[in-house]
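Collaborator request, handled under Task 6.
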Amino acid sequence: MKAELQMEKLNLIDLPGVGAATAEKLEQAGYRDLMSIAVSTVGELIEVTGVTEAVGRKMINAARDSMKMGFETGTQVLQRRQLVNKYSTGSVAFDNLLGGGFETGSITECFGEFGSGKTQVGHALCVNVLKNDPEAYAVYIDTENTFRPERIQQMATAAGLDSEEALSRIMVARAFNSDHQMLLTEKVDTLITEQKKKVRLVVVDSLTAHFRAEFIGRGTLAERQQKLNRHMHDLAKVAQSNNICVYVTNQVMAKPDQFFGDPTQAIGGHVVAHASTFRIYLRKGKKGTRVAKLIDSPMHPDGECCFEVQEGGLKDLV
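Structure tokens returned to the collaborator:
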């Protein structure tokens, strides 16, 4: 017990090689606790503080030792999984596809062509998270000018919430380029630690729009994927360290060499595919319906369901 109390009292300046100046640089860059140091890379610490590789490695190792970031039993992992919350989309069939809804502590990606319902899912999640917890906040990073407060008002009213109060608990930011988009992801930690907002959902709509526009041609592909990979890891860190549900939408392209079957393919390649915990393919169905197909999950079988986008949100087919 005494050892645990001593570990809780450790702060950045207690790490080897960290003085007052280095601690200040770390805090300005968003490294405010031992966990943020423990899950960072040596290169990131060198870039932020200017320390040597040896010192950076010592800082990370000391932080990991104090956090007991070693092996644990499957029973302990199962106990930690009890803290995971699941947020409804409004459609029972859609929720059942994911075993009860969108999970916290993970990244869920929905990709599909325009009009397939990706943004509508994001709006519905915002409202349902606010309905589930009266103190919760949602963060919406808008890259394509798709966030509509009027739509939130419609869904909030249908859910029995005060529409103005619901809007006041959604923090919206318009990202104008990929660097700004990545910076806004880092700002989520500031909302939680400094402004004491109980953030439970982060929506990025869409994930790849700016990356796709800024990196043109095969020659820039490696640089784009490296940057996108870093962004996905930042989102994963936000999800896991704060038990937040991260929902990202993704654009698609048509494979010109696909002669049979559906030629639709998500942007971002394997980088986005591997970093996402759950992947859902959305497409238009018959008579204005939408089809959600689960194509990747660590625990659920592949499957699909149909739902409708109505004024009050996502609903099951009657």
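The cover message to the collaborator said: "The mean pLDDT is 91. The longest helix spans residues 221-242. Please let us know whether this matches your experimental observations."
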